[in-house]
Specification:
- The chain is an alpha/beta fold.
- The chain has 2 domains: about 180 residues, Rossmann fold (3-Layer(aba) Sandwich); about 210 residues, Rossmann fold, CATH 3.40.50.
- About 30% of the residues lie in helices and about 20% in strands.
- The chain contains 13 helices and 21 strands.
- Strands 12-11-8-13-16-17-19-20 form an 8-stranded mixed sheet, sandwiched between helices. Strands 2-1-3-4-5 form a 5-stranded parallel sheet, with helices on both faces. A two-stranded antiparallel sheet has the order 6-7.
- Helix 3 packs across helix 5 and helix 9 packs across helix 13.
- The protein is elongated and about 85 Å long.
- The structure holds cytidine-5'-triphosphate.
- Cytidine-5'-triphosphate binds next to helix 11, strand 16 and helix 12.
Length: about 400
């Protein structure tokens, strides 16, 4: 079975002959669904070109802490390290392992390592005697003690012609090992998650519609986070200007509430978790015109009819053990209204936000939400990025899985 690894991987490439395999490794990681940012040590440039790795990863390769173009810019190692779900150093040379063990920090990769809070993996690659040298053993032991995980090395023919331990683990095996370590234990692995996002557009005529200001960002952040945790994600989205930033998301684009209902009804019966974050129109024009209504034509009133409540349908057809989450945008008496929604639609959780909070709701990259669940007090969260809200939501749901 091929590995699926929808994760952000910071790949450190150091100076050793096995760096020639980095091209295949980047390819294998990308194929498995990972976003890959390559950081090379200066010595790695002697073995493989940055052009090869940047082309395969789709991102510029980084090497230096400082951008030496007179601009005073620098590569932000703290941000890079925080971006990553995992740091993999492959190949990890004896020299880089020694520097990592001793906290040295004279290149970008080492600075990223020192800043990393994510899991760190090293795939040592060196010749037999270097691998056998007690100094290397001590350095690896020190790193392991600090939580760094070692993959390999493998036994086999080495660049020197000697045969023994020291070969870098093959790229496909490295991807498998990462998948096992990062996703294998995730409670989301193998779960199916349905997320809806964005607005719906209800036509008045072929040109005009009734819509709303939802950007879809919150739903996309939830879909991305669920995919990163190893879930199979179906994202049903209204018209938005967004591209999902994580692999492993099956996306269905819809226009109207009726189309969203149809797509959701097809997926919901298989879903373990449903997160209905779309801003579905509650009403639609009862008789949209078949052709464009001209300026001169009378259009004094617009007859509206209710759309189907998708979430209520999902709640009514809930399969055993299914977790259902609704969103509520309230302008007044938020908690009371959200609790009503929780009961009426048979939900496990309502994520409530109000338009009264600055920086929250439609169009903002940030949100301030309150989780409302049956039989517990409301849990308000501070203003945070929508991806942090997504993390908090999935942490909360993880406890229910
Ligand atoms: N929703 C839905 N289908 C609709 C309308 C809304 O699935 N036709 C979902 C939204 O995606 C959201 C939740 O229902 O998760 C809350 O929507 P809202 O329109 O506020 O719910 P209502 O109970 O209809 O709102 P209110 O009673 O406040 O008018």
């Amino acid at each position: 079975m091929s590995a699926a690894l929808p994760r952000r991987i910071l790949l450190g490439v150091t100076g050793g002959i096995a760096a020639y395999k980095s091209a295949l490794l980047v390819r294998a990681l990308v194929k498995a669904g990972a976003e890959v940012q390559v950081v090379m040590t200066p010595a790695a440039h002697d073995f493989v070109t940055p052009l090869t790795l940047s082309t395969l990863s789709g991102r510029p390769v980084l090497t230096d802490l400082f951008v030496r173009d007179g601009s005073g810019r620098w590569n932000d190692h703290v941000h890079l390290a925080r971006w990553a779900d995992a740091l993999l150093v492959a190949p990890a040379s004896a020299n880089t392992l020694a520097k990592m063990a001793h906290g040295q920090c004279d290149n970008l990769l080492l600075a990223c390592f020192l800043s990393a809070t994510c899991p760190v993996f090293v795939a040592p690659a060196m010749d037999l005697e270097m691998w056998r040298d007690p100094a290397t053993g001590h350095n690896l032991a020190a790193l392991k003690e600090r939580g760094v995980r070692t993959i390999g090395p493998a036994h086999g023919e080495l660049a020197s012609g000697l045969v023994g331990e020291g070969r870098m683990t093959e790229p496909d095996e490295l991807v498998h090992a990462l998948q096992e370590a990062l996703i294998g234990a995730s409670p989301w692995a193998g779960r199916t998650v349905l997320v809806t996002a964005g607005p719906t557009q209800e036509p008045i005529d072929p040109v005009r519609y009734i819509g709303n200001r939802s950007s879809g960002r919150m739903g996309f952040a939830i879909a991305e986070e669920a995919a990163r945790r190893g879930a199979r994600v179906h994202l049903v989205t209204g018209p938005v200007q967004l591209t999902a930033a994580a692999a492993g998301i099956a996306r269905t684009d819809v226009g109207t509430a009726a189309e969203m209902a149809e797509a959701c009804k097809a997926i919901a019966p298989q879903a373990d978790v449903v997160v209905m974050s779309a801003a579905v129109a509650d009403f639609r024009p009862a008789a949209p015109a078949a052709r464009k209504v001209k300026k001169g034509e009378p259009l004094d009133t617009l007859q509206l009819e209710p759309t189907e409540d998708i979430l209520a349908w999902i709640g009514a057809h809930r399969r055993p053990g299914q977790i259902i989450v609704g969103f509520a945008l309230e302008t007044n008496d938020g908690v009371a209204h959200a609790r009503g929604k929780l009961q009426r639609k048979g939900l496990d959780l309502v994520v409530m936000n109000t338009l009264e909070d600055a920086g929250a709701g439609f169009g903002h990259p940030t949100n301030r939400v309150t989780f409302i669940a049956p039989d517990t007090d409301p849990h308000p969260l501070p203003l945070m990025s929508k991806s942090d809200v997504a993390r908090a939501l999935l942490d909360r749901l993880e406890a229910l899985l």
